[in-house]
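Submission sheet (multi-component)
Chains listed below:
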Amino acid sequence: MWVVAQQQARAVETRAQIVRGAAETFEKQGYVGASLGTIIENAGLTKGALYFHFRSKEELARCIVAEQHATSIASVEAIGREQAPAIEQIVMLCHEMARQIVHDPIVRAGIRITLELSADEQGPADPYLDWINTCEQLARRAIVQGDLTPDIDPPRFARFVIGAFTGVQTVSQVLAQRTDLEQRVDDMWMFLLPGIVPAERHPDIDRIRKARSVGAPLARVDAQLPPRG
Amino acid sequence: MWVVAQQQARAVETRAQIVRGAAETFEKQGYVGASLGTIIENAGLTKGALYFHFRSKEELARCIVAEQHATSIASVEAIGREQAPAIEQIVMLCHEMARQIVHDPIVRAGIRITLELSADEQGPADPYLDWINTCEQLARRAIVQGDLTPDIDPPRFARFVIGAFTGVQTVSQVLAQRTDLEQRVDDMWMFLLPGIVPAERHPDIDRIRKARSVGAPLARVDAQLPPRG
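Outcome: structure written.
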C-alpha cells in the first residue's frame, strides 16, 4: 500500500512538472507554435511520461486553461472574504489579476491560449467570465454601500473594468514587458474613480485606490505612499 | 514603355493580393502557425510569385505591421483635420480603431502578429505608440480647451485610454467575436467621461460621447440616438 501511495505522489509531481513545462512553452511559442516535442524537452521528461498523463497538446492546453480558471476562482474567493467595502474589493481584484499575470506562468500561458483560440472560433472564455461575474456582484454591493453611483449598470460596468484591465496589461506587455503593470493599474483607477464614485464619497477615493488584498504582496506603488489606516 | 507600366501595375496588384492573403492566414493561424505554404495556397498564387515579392514569412509579417501602421497614421491625420474639440477627437479615435479592427483584415493580422511577437521579446510597438502619441497631443489640447480636468497627466491618460480600448476589444473578441465592440466602446466613454471632464462641462458629456469621425461609417449605437446638431 505504501509503495502505491509513493507511486501516486510521484505521478502527481510528474504531472505538475509537465504542466509547468508546457505552460512555459505555450507562453513563449503560443498554442500553434508549441510542439509536443519541445514541451517534452522543456519539461525534461520522456515521451512515455508525457503520454501517460496527456493524450494530446489540446488536452494539455485545456488543462492549463482549467488551472488558470481554478487559480482565478481561488483568488476571487479570497478577495470575497476580505472585510473591505465592495468598491475596494474591485480595485483589489485588478491588482490581484496583475499579480497573477506577472508571477504565474500558468496564468500567462492560459491567457495566450485563450487569445489564440478565440481568434478564429469561440475560445475558452471562462477565466474572463469569472472575473466579470465577480466584478458584477461586487458592483451591485458597492451601489448598495453608496460607493458607486446608482445609475451604473453592473453587468456593463464589470465588462468594462475587466476589459480595461486586460488591455492595460497588454499595452504594458508590448511597451514595457509588464514591468510597469502595477503602476498602470493604479493609473486606471485614478482616471476611473472620480467618475463612478458619488460626489459625497470623493474624500474616500484615495483610500479606495490604495486598496490591496491582504494575501497579495505589497505593491510597489503602495510602498511610496503612507501606510493605510 | 507602355508594356513596362502594365507589368508594374500587375506586380503592384499581385503584391497587394499576397499581402491580403497573408493577412487572412496570419489572423487565423497566428505568426508561428502560418506557413508560407498555406499563405501561397490562400492567396491563390505560385511559390515563384510570392518569392518574387517577399523573401520570407518574417518579411511578409513586417510588411503587414507596416501597412497597419500606415493605416493608423492616415486615420489619425484624418481625425486631426476634423473641426471638433480635442476631447471629441479622442472619442472618435477609439471608434475609428474599433472600425478598423472590425473591417480591416490587415489591422487584425497586425494586432495578432504584434501580440505574438511581444510575448517573448520586444515586439513591434509602433501601432500602439501612434495612437498613444496622438491621444496624448489631443489630451493636451483638451485641457487647454477646458474639456479635460487640468490635473490629468496627458502621457499617462493617453496610455490608459489606448490600453482600455485594447482590452475592451479583446474581451469583445473573446465573448462576442467583436459583434458588440461599438457598444462596448460607447460604454467605456460613458464610465470614463464623468471623471475626466470638469464639472462645468458635464452638460457636454452626451455630445462628446456621441462624437464620430465624419469619414467613418455611422455607428450602430449612434443610429438609435437623435442626430447630432
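Remark: Residues 100 and 107 of chain B are 7 Å apart (CA to CA).
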